[in-house]
Design brief:
With 200 residues, the protein is an all-alpha fold. 61% of the residues lie in helices and 0% in strands. It contains ten helices and no strands.
Length: 200
Amino acid sequence: MADTGPRAGRGARERILAAAVRLFDERGITATTMEDVAEAAPVSKRTLYAHFPTKEDLVLAQLDHLLDSGATMLDALRDSGTPPRERLLGMFGLGLWDGDVRSCPFLRAATEDPDPDGRAHAFARAQKLVMLELATGLVAELGIAEPEALAEQLVTLSDGVASRAMVLNDPDYGRHARAAAEVLLDHAPRLAATSANTSA
């Protein structure tokens, strides 16, 4: 018999992804079954597996869905309407959480797929490298002499505070890392000012 009611029709993929994002965030990837996602979507298991043949496929798709949502740290770093320094300091969690504090979804995915060659782990690693690239560009815009080194320090602080804030369930915990980041930015060696070549 064909699916009827809310389980049928268009939008099944979107409902599945929304349910996966919520459940993986609340329970973790390993603790969430495909049956849990199907029930929360709601769709039949046949529909779920038609869209996502394996759980790994679903994990990767919901991470990609998060990237497309415009609500990740990467989007904040790309926000050209915000000054570079504030974009960098925005990595430290202030105001990012409403309710229980969750860690970074890419960190969670890598943790729950610890094999460095695993697809979810590789996807998460790729996003963390993009984060580093964006941070390096912003640090360079500030005229700092060694942007790569400082960017590494800043993203390390950001990832660390995301994990620690989750463990402590403290949405304001980022203030500690932000304070450290401000010190790093304020005391980083700057490039020497250069005069334009005006010789005739």
